[in-house]
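Memo to structure team: turn this sequence into structure tokens by end of day. - J.P.
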Amino acid sequence: MEAVDSQTTLVASFHIGDMLFGIDALRVEEAIKVVDITAVPHAPEHIPGVINLRGRIVTVVNLAKKLGMPESPISESSRFIIISWHDEYIGFLVDSVSDVVAVDALSVQPPPSNVRGMQGANFEGVQQIDAGLLIILKVSAVLDG
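Reply from structure team:
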């Protein structure tokens, strides 16, 4: 995670089910409402397809499926969190977006090896914030792993 100052990192937070996750805010291009997804034949199960975002092709990753969590139906609050990764655009499908929060990088705890059945290798760490336990996603583990 990149620091805002020597100890503070901005984290964009979002929900999957009843869990609060975060991603380094500097990685996030934008968050958009869910639009029609075009299926891609033979794609992994956690990739429902692609979307066209103002002429850019964006690969959609269903984070609930990728992390082994129960999926929620797509609703009015569902969003794609768009990030740039290795010269392509990725849209993480999440149940809702929350706030950008400042996290004290020195107080982030190492992730437990197993967070509610999910592999801890997918996470940078955990941090208690006012909204609850924030689980910080390790993008490289989710996308390259």
